[in-house]
Design brief:
Layout (H helix, E strand, L loop, with lengths): L2 E12 L13 E11 L5 E5 L6 H15 L7 H12 L7 H21 L3 H5 L5 E10 L5 H13 L4 E5 L6 H15 L4 E5 L6 H10 L7 E3 L7 H10 L4 E3 L7 H8 L5 E5 H4 L2 H13 L4 E4 L2 H10 L3 E6 L13 E2 L2 E3 L12 H7 L3
Parallel strand pairs: 4-5, 4-11, 5-6, 6-7, 7-8, 8-9, 9-10, 10-11
Antiparallel strand pairs: 1-2, 2-3, 4-13, 12-13
Helix pairs in contact: 1-3, 2-3, 5-6, 7-8
Length: 361
């Protein structure tokens, strides 16, 4: 089997999160999709995205790297991706290069699973066939406290046992704490509640406010300071009993080594597109396991269900439904858990009507 051709598209889809109720959701998000073909008729799919302004450049990068895969054996994923790293690695790992190679890596694993009649989860380790998932994007910092008090219980009614909110935008620490207190009171003590800061605090803020919300038993505090302040993260992690999660903003595998060696984090969060795809994900997961730390996902739950379910230290999958509308069928959620599809490969197929509807180039 050889890679024979590929098709990329730029899509612009409505930025609508179905977990949000009663709030206007204007705007769009752009994605680059990939369909990677082989001479035996097995096709793999991939996706990548980031800021819309550079989406055309990202598509070009995917096209250029796909050209280098033509004629290669798609089952030898490590060999193919290593060729791409050697050919263009000087342009990365941060930025467009990692985002582009990830789409190809994902498609290669999809092809391999289909060719071998195995799920990607099974190929990556197959530790379980489902994993806990948490509601994301529905309790953001633009939402009022009154909205949080209503939305939290609504997510519980939908079956979620975990959910994530945000801090980092209120003018005072008192008001930041009030958001967490309101949500905890609304959902009760048995729901896992995470909180994302999105790098908006400095170390002192993180320790001061983090200390004040410890009584509300957050499952984790996420990205409390800038992504590469490993020593600052370590100070926060050492000062608080609340676990510190980070990793979604870094590219490639080496920053994770630095975070782990510095004891900067308690929970390793991996963005599948920034890390370099499944091939690089499993290397980070192995490093985390060596440090006795759990791994959680960032975005694209329909792909990340395979990665997190595959490993023994996989903790939970972020259910952020940005990309779900692009597929014919997406992984089921049962009793707060996301289920690995039982079809070969990723178990996914692009919705062709959606591709036509949202395609801009």
């Amino acid at each position: 089997m050889k890679v024979s051709n590929w098709t990329t598209r730029v899509l612009e889809a409505p930025d609508v999160n179905p977990l949000i109720v009663g709030v206007d959701q204007p705007g769009t998000r752009e994605f680059v999709t990939l369909e990677l073909d082989t001479d035996e008729g097995v096709q793999g799919i991939g996706i990548t995205f980031f800021g819309a302004a550079l989406t055309p450049a990202l598509r070009t990068a995917v096209d250029n790297l796909c050209e280098l895969t033509v004629g290669e054996d798609p089952l030898q994923v490590e060999a193919v991706t290593d060729k791409l790293w050697l050919a263009a690695g000087g342009a990365g790992p941060e930025g467009i290069f990692s985002l582009a190679i990830s789409a190809i890596d994902i498609a290669l694993w999809d092809i391999k699973g289909k060719a071998l009649n195995q799920t990607v989860c099974s190929l990556l380790g197959g530790h379980r066939d489902r994993v806990v998932t948490y509601a994301s994007g529905a309790l953001g910092r633009p939402m009022s406290i009154e909205y949080l008090a209503e939305a939290g219980p609504r997510l519980v009614e939908q079956g979620f046992r975990q959910m994530k909110t945000q801090m980092g935008a209120e003018p005072t620490a008192r008001r930041e704490v009030a958001r967490i207190r309101t949500l905890r009171d609304a959902v009760g003590p048995d729901i896992d509640l995470m909180c994302d800061i999105n790098q908006l605090w400095d170390v002192n803020q993180a320790i001061a406010i983090g200390s004040r919300v410890e009584e509300y038993h957050l499952f984790w505090l996420e990205d409390v300071v800038v992504r590469d302040d490993y020593q600052g993260l370590a100070r926060v992690a050492d000062a608080l009993t609340t676990p510190i999660a980070a990793g979604e903003y870094v590219y490639g595998i080496r920053p994770f080594r630095h975070m782990l060696e510095q004891r900067s984090i308690d929970i390793v969060m991996v963005d599948l597109l920034r890390v370099g795809g499944f091939t690089q994900f499993r290397k980070v997961a192995g490093m985390a396991e060596a440090f006795n730390l759990p791994v959680v996902s960032h975005l694209i739950p329909e792909f990340q269900v395979h990665s997190i379910a595959a490993i023994p230290n996989g903790l939970t999958v972020e259910y952020m439904p940005w990309t779900l509308r692009l597929f014919e069928e997406t992984p089921a959620i049962e009793d707060g858990e996301i289920v690995v599809p039982d079809k070969p490969g990723l178990g996914l197929a692009f919705d062709q009507d959606a591709l036509k509807r949202y395609q801009v180039s």
